[in-house]
């Protein structure tokens, strides 16, 4: 299984990306990892001898976080992200992963790799943390700001296939994010999507509210990218604030430091439940190849876990299963 890794994407690139790729190569010897980026910069961050299942694919340019996504993809043909996408498009790689510009990665998926037949718009599908550790797959969380009812239905179908194949869920529950659980709630698009999902071959449990997500009120959460991205950033900010306040309180005095020492194992477990690096990357479902987006601030552990996730998704043939299910409609 061949995975192209955008070595120049992310806040800590290329150092953290190279370190993560080395960790993954050592742990998963069956993988062939292609580090795509400026060769000299990659070698500068690499150990003297790279594992035998890593090779460098030179890309002269890179897409920065400030670049306008579509323009950058069209003009920077030799950027690491676009070159990685071309490797997938040409069948030289089975998947690609990047921690770089999210909008540019979406554009790479659409303009370079292309959509699956029958899919109107791909969806970014990160795993939201839950208290039981199983997570909620949420889509779309940023690829498309608007969505039609039919597109929301496609998100539900793709999410169901992903959770079934990757997470081994027999009948994953699909929830439609809304302002209330009643069928009549929401705007017209959500109401139309509700009716479509009731008739679809999925386990639809109706409307769900965001306040219950941490308790895993569904296994797949469906919404448009505008609402979903606000939800994601709110959850990330809330988690960061909680840990910041706890750190401040537990270092306030000698007694509080003693209390922190006693509570540390429980706090570590709690933080791990809310840690995005444990999942590593979010798939862009609906493109004609496996594309994974890592968080911009991903460290080596997050990159390694993203590669691990990519290998698992490839083993389950998720892209092929989505294509097969959509073609039946």
UniProtKB/TrEMBL annotation:
Cross-referenced Pfam families: FA_synthesis
One term of GO molecular function: phosphate:acyl-[acyl carrier protein] acyltransferase activity
Keywords: Acyltransferase, Cytoplasm, Lipid biosynthesis, Lipid metabolism, Phospholipid biosynthesis, Phospholipid metabolism, Transferase
Main location: cytoplasm
Gene3D superfamilies: Isopropylmalate Dehydrogenase
Assigned EC number: 2.3.1.274
Catalytic activity: a fatty acyl-[ACP] + phosphate = an acyl phosphate + holo-[ACP]
Localization per Swiss-Prot or TrEMBL: Cytoplasm
Pathway: Lipid metabolism; phospholipid metabolism
Role according to the record: Catalyzes the reversible formation of acyl-phosphate (acyl-PO(4)) from acyl-[acyl-carrier-protein] (acyl-ACP). This enzyme utilizes acyl-ACP as fatty acyl donor, but not acyl-CoA.
Subunit details: Homodimer. Probably interacts with PlsY.
UniProt similarity note: Belongs to the PlsX family.
Protein name per its UniProtKB record: Phosphate acyltransferase
Organism annotation: Marinicrinis sediminis
The encoding gene: plsX
């Amino acid at each position: 299984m061949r995975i192209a890794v955008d070595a120049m994407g992310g806040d800590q690139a290329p150092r953290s990306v190279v370190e993560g790729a080395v960790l993954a190569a050592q742990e998963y010897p069956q993988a062939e990892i292609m580090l795509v980026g400026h060769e000299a910069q990659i070698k500068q961050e690499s150990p003297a001898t790279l594992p035998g299942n890593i090779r460098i694919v030179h890309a002269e340019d890179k897409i920065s976080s400030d670049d306008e996504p579509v323009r950058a993809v069209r003009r920077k043909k030799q950027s690491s992200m676009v070159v990685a996408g071309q490797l997938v498009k040409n069948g030289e790689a089975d998947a690609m992963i990047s921690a770089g510009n999210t909008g540019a990665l979406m554009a790479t998926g659409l303009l370079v790799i292309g959509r699956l037949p029958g899919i109107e718009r791909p969806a970014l599908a990160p795993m939201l943390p839950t208290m039981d550790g199983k997570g909620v797959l949420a889509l779309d969380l940023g690829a498309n700001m608007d969505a039609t009812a039919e597109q929301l239905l496609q998100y539900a179908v793709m999410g169901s296939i992903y959770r079934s194949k990757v997470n081994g869920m027999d009948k994953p529950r699909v929830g439609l994010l809304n302002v209330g659980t009643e069928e009549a709630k929401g705007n017209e698009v959500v109401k139309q999507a509700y009716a479509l999902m009731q008739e679809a071959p999925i386990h639809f449990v109706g409307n769900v509210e965001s306040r219950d997500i941490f308790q895993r009120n569904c296994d797949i959460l469906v919404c448009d990218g505008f609402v979903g991205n606000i939800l994601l950033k709110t959850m990330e900010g809330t988690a960061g604030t909680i840990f910041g306040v706890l750190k401040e309180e537990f270092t306030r005095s000698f007694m509080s430091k003693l209390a922190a020492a006693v509570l540390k194992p429980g706090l570590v477990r709690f933080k791990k439940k809310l840690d995005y690096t444990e999942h590593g990357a979010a798939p862009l479902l609906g493109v004609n190849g496996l594309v994974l987006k890592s968080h911009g601030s991903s460290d080596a552990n997050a990159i390694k876990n993203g590669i691990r996730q990519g290998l698992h998704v490839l083993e389950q043939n998720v892209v092929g299963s989505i294509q097969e299910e959509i073609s039946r409609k």
